[in-house]
Amino acid sequence: MNAFFVFKASKIKKYFFLTIALVFAVGVIYSERDNITVFAPQQPIAIYNVPTDKNVIALTFDISWGDKRLEPILDVLEEKGVKSATFFVSSVWSQSHPELVKKIQDAGYEIGSHGHKHDNYSTLTDDEIRSQITTAHSIIADVTGKAPNLIRLPNGDFDKRVLKIATELEYQVIQWDTDSMDWLSLGTDKIADRVISRAHPGDIILLHASDSATQTHLALPIIVDELRNKGFDFVSVTDLITQTESQGEAVTSSSVSSSKLLSAQ
To answer: 72: helix, coil or strand?
Structure first.
C-alpha cells in the first residue's frame, strides 16, 4: 500500500510541474503576442536594415520644409561620386518646391514618400491615415511623374494599424538603423562620428535635408570618405532590399525603441 502511494505521489508531482510550465508558456505567448505574430511572413513590416554580408549601405534623407539645405547636400553627393541615395519628401514640400524635386531626380536619386502633413500617424483614425498616405501619393506622383512605393512616416511614428494600411496601399515602410541626429546640430564631428561608428552592412542611415539640418552638408563629406575607407558602397533603399534575400527586420510599434521615434524633421 505504501509503494502504491509513493508511485502516485511522484506522478502527481510530475504532472503538477508540467501543468505549471504549460500555464507559464501560455502566459508568455499571450503577453508577447504582438511581438511574436509580427514576424510571421504575412504580417506587415517596417524595414530598419537588410541583413547581408555585402558592404552596402543606404544613405537616406528626409525633407519636409525649407529650401536652403538640399542643394549643398546634392553638391556633396555629386563631388564625392555618390550615385545612389534615397530622399523621402513630404508632398507639401514637393508641391511647394517642384524645382528642387527635379534636381533630386536629375541627379538620379530615388524618391520616396514622407507623407502629407507632418503628423504622428498613430494618433489618426484609419480613414485619416489612408487619406494622408494617398494624398501624398497623388501629389508626389504628379510632381515626379512616378508613383512612389516607399514611405518613411513622419517622425518615424507608426503602429500596427499604420503598417497594415500602408501595406494595403502597396507601400513598404522604411525606418532606419543608424540615426545621425543631424537635425539637433550636435556639431559636424559628432554627427559624422555617430554615423561612422554605428554603420554596418545592410544599414539604413537617417539624415535630413530640411532647413533644420544646418550641419548635414558639412558632416556628409566626412561620412562618405570614412565609410568608403571601411569598404562600404552606397545603394538606394530599393537596391538594398532587392539585392538580398532577406526583407529586413520586422517590428511593431511595441518593440520600437524611443530613440527611433525622435522627431525626423
So the answer is: helix
Q: What count of residues does the chain have?
A: 265
Helix, strand, or coil here: 110? Answer: strand
Whether 219 contacts 68, CB under 8 Å: no
- Comparing CA positions, the residue from 52, 57, 108 lying closest to residue 235 is 57
Tell me the CB-side half-sphere exposure of residue 73, using CA atoms within 13 A: 28
What is the longest distance spanned by two Cα atoms in the chain? 94
Who's near 192: CB < 8 A, 6+ residues apart? 219, 222, 223, 226
Phi, then psi, of 112 in degrees rounded to 5:
-120, 170
User: Distance (Å, rounded) from C-alpha 12 to C-alpha 18?
Assistant: 10
Which residues form the catalytic set?
A: 62, 208
Cell numbers at 58, concatenated:
543606404
204: exposed, middle or buried (C-beta count within 10 Å: 0-12, 13-18, 19+)? Answer: buried
pTM greater than the 0.85 cutoff? no
Q: Give the tens place of pLDDT for each residue, 110-143.
A: 999 999 999 999 999 999 999 999 999 999 999 9
Cell of 71: 542643394
- Asked whether the beta carbons of 60 and 174 are under 8 A apart, the reply is yes
Q: How far apart are CA 123 and CA 119, in angstroms?
A: 8
C-alpha cell at 206: 537617417
- The C-alpha atoms of residue 57 and residue 145 are separated, in whole angstroms, by 27
Tell me the pLDDT tens digit for each residue of 200-237. Answer: 999 999 999 999 999 999 999 999 999 999 999 999 99
| C-beta of residue 210 within 8 angstroms of C-beta of residue 67 | no
Take residue 4 and report the three cell numbers written for it.
Answer: 502504491
Residue where the block lists cell 564625392: 80
Cell of 72: 549643398
With cell 502629407, the residue in question is 116
Residues 246 and 7: their CA atoms lie apart, in Å, by 53
